[in-house]
Amino acid sequence: METNRDLASWLISHRNEIEAAMNLRLGPAAPSVASPEAEALRRFRTYASSALVRDTAVPPALDGLRVNQRRTEALILAWLEAAAESAGTDNTLLRDSLTPLVSQFRIHLRGTSSGRKTRGTPRAKRRMVVAAIDRLAEAFLAVDTDTGTIEDANPAAGALLGLNQDELLGVDAMSFVPAPMQAALWCELDAVCEGVETHSFATTLYDSKGTYLEMSASTTRFATRDKVLALILLRPRISADCLPRSEIDSSEIDANGAASEAGPQDPAGPQLTSSPDTPLEATAHDVTTTSQRNPSTNPFSCPGVSLKYLHTMVRVSNLDESLAFYVGALGLVEVNRVDVEAGRFTLCFLAAPGDESAQIELTYNWDAEAYTGGRNFGHVAYQVDDIYQTCQRLQDAGVTINRPPRDGHMAFVRSPEGISVELLQKSGSLPVQEPWQSMENVGEW
Hints:
Helix content: 25-40%
Order of helices and strands: HHHHHHEEHHEEEEHEHEEEEHEEE
Structural class: alpha+beta
Strand content: 15-25%
Radius of gyration: 27 Å
CATH class of the largest domain: Alpha Beta
CATH topology of the largest domain: 2,3-Dihydroxybiphenyl 1,2-Dioxygenase, domain 1
CATH architecture of the largest domain: Roll
CATH superfamily of the largest domain: 2,3-Dihydroxybiphenyl 1,2-Dioxygenase, domain 1
Number of domains: 3
């Protein structure tokens, strides 16, 4: 390449090669073809080629573009790096010719009318979250709890995932999460959205090169005027073997994010039922902490102790009303009942059909007694085959849906005594549908 015209011809003829190299480098953060940022990149290529051919830069056509400015600029720089690598020995000429055009395009991008409308009146550039996060040594992501989009990140997060900080903006956070772990992460985002202030959990990510990363994560709730963000701090969890993703089939990643030693599992994650036709299954959030997976690292562990979870006991003031809720509406079955005349109380043991390993014990004292709920007790949770059908059945039975399944994944109801019951959709989320999508929350849960 001896002239700018030669460079322009080379850029056009090698367009697909450059884009493929850029997308390979960006991995999960590569832009979709239909995204506004991808359109901005196409307009930059046209602007650059035209400027090289004419030896003068005509202002680019940017009207109608509404883009994330930081992400767009990061994509253009990533494209420039990919072009330089493809140019081989001519990379210096390419950089010298294109770098000024990149700078001019960025200036035009910031000055577009649509950009001003997006940003409001001219002012100092603002971050979604305070810029002090850039000084954190741990990887930091701010994720929209409604869409799962990464709204902000720090340099440590970029380094962890093998990308520049701004290349993460606007990217679906789930694109860095193995499929079997995505439902568990959505549960964490839902919890933040519903008011949980801080929480810690374990997860698995993979970076832009497909290397699996075992991480400990902690979330903090951050509410802006129009959205709720989950502020996620990430730290390496264990000394993982860091196998490339190509060497680990996603079906070999269990719901806790660990590579299974027993061979491939069901892609939907571990199931707790003995029958595929079971309508209701007892479940827990698919999250295992570091200390649980590595008992030797937990200073409070008791080696050699064997325990088995049996049941959760709740006191009820009206046994018939409670059975109408738990059995008649929710769908549990009564597996045992004990009347203790000497103590003047009745015990009813309930379980999900086909799964008696985790039960609810209803304790009914024959002498009248009033009960008030306490915040120290959270909820019991059940996994269901179809969350919409389950909520409709409960609603038909006169049960208030306190937190409707707007996301096709999670709902909350309360028993007559105020016990909060969480319902979670099996294997991720169902497509969003009405009337549930438009339903408002009722009361608390």
